[in-house]
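Supplementary Methods, section 5.1.

A reviewer requested that the exact input to the structure prediction be made available. We therefore reproduce it here, unchanged from the version used in the analyses.
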Amino acid sequence: MKAAVLYSTVPSGTSYTEARPLRVEELDRPEPRAGELGITITYSSLCHSDLSVVDGSRVRPLPMALGHEAVGRVAAVGEGVTDVSPGDHVVLVFVPSCGDCRACRAGRPALCHRAAEVNGSGDLLHGEALLRTPAGERINHHLGVSAFADYAVVARESVVVIDDDVPGTVAAMFGCAVLTGMGAVLNTAAVQPGQSVAVFGLGAVGLSAVMAAALAGASSVIAIDPNAGKHGLALKCGATAAGTPDEASRLIADAAGDGVDTAIEAVGSARVIASCLGHVTRGGAVVSVGLPHPTAELTVPALQFAGAGKRLLGSYMGDAVPGRDIPLYLGYWREGRLPVELLHTDTRPLGEINEGLDALAAGQVVRRLFQA
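The structure derived from this sequence is encoded cell-by-cell as follows.
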C-alpha cells in the first residue's frame, strides 16, 4: 500500500514543497483484525489539523501516517463485523466512539474517552498500530484513519456507510469539515430561525458553519476572514455579509445592533475567541471550534459571563453523532440546501501532498482533495 508518512515536524513558515516533510512510501498492507475494516481510499482531503501536526503545534507520536478526512470503499471485513460489507461506500470519521464510556453513554460520542486515548497514542480502537516502515519500525495512525493513502485499516466505529451515488469529491468532506462546522451551529449552538450568527475564519469548517447558519434560518450570517479572496465564496455559501476582522464591528452592528446571538470561532486563536466574546449580545454564545496552540491562554473580562450572561462553548467534531448527522447532512445536500461542492478547490495526486501543505498555509485552497 501507498501512504504519506511524517517522520519529523517542520516549523511553520518553512517551504513544505522544499522540506518535503511527508514522504509517500510503499508499506506492507495490513489486514483488519476483529472489529476492523480494510478501506480502499478513493479521495482524501487536506485539513488544517493535518498541517498542525506537520508544523508541530499539535503534538503527535511520530512517525505517523497522516490524513483524517476521506471517503472510500470497504475492501475487507474483520471478524465480528456484520453490518458492513465489501464494496460499501463509506465516509471515514476521526473519532471512533467506543459506545461505553461516560461521554458515549451521555450521547456525546465526539468526546469518547477511549477514542481520545487511542487517537493520542496513534493506535486503533481495537488494537495497537498496524503500520510499519520498510525497516519494521512502528508507524502511528492519525486519528484512527491515516487517509493520505490508497488503503487504510480502521475501526468499524470510524466509518459511516453512505449511498453509492454520492460523489466522492462531495462525500470526502463530510467526515471532518462538514461534520465539525455544521455541528457547531446545529448541535452546539442550536441556532434558531431569526437569530444572528457571525463566523470567524473561512476555511472549510468555517464555511460549513456559514452554510449551517443559513440552513438554520439565521436572519444575518456575517462571515469574517482577513483573506478577502474568501469573501465571495462565503456569500455563495449563504452569508449575508462578509468582511475582514477590521470590518467585523461595523458589519455586526449594521446587522445585529449590540452583537450577534452566536459567534463561531473557526480560526484556532485565543485572541479571536476573546474578540468574539465582545461581538455577541447579552446572553449570546461563542462557540470555539478551532484548535489553538496547546500553550495558548485565554484572558477575558470575567464579568462578561455572570454579568452579561454570555457563554463560551467548546465544540469538538461539532458535538456530532456521525451515524445520525452525516446521513442528515447528506439529505440537506441532496435537497440543494447544502452546497458542499463549493468547498472543493481541486484534486491532485497524492505525490503533491507537500505542495498542498504550502497552498493551505497560504490560504490558496479551501479543500484540496488527493488520490493515491
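The chain is about 30% helix and 25% strand. These observations are discussed further in the main text.
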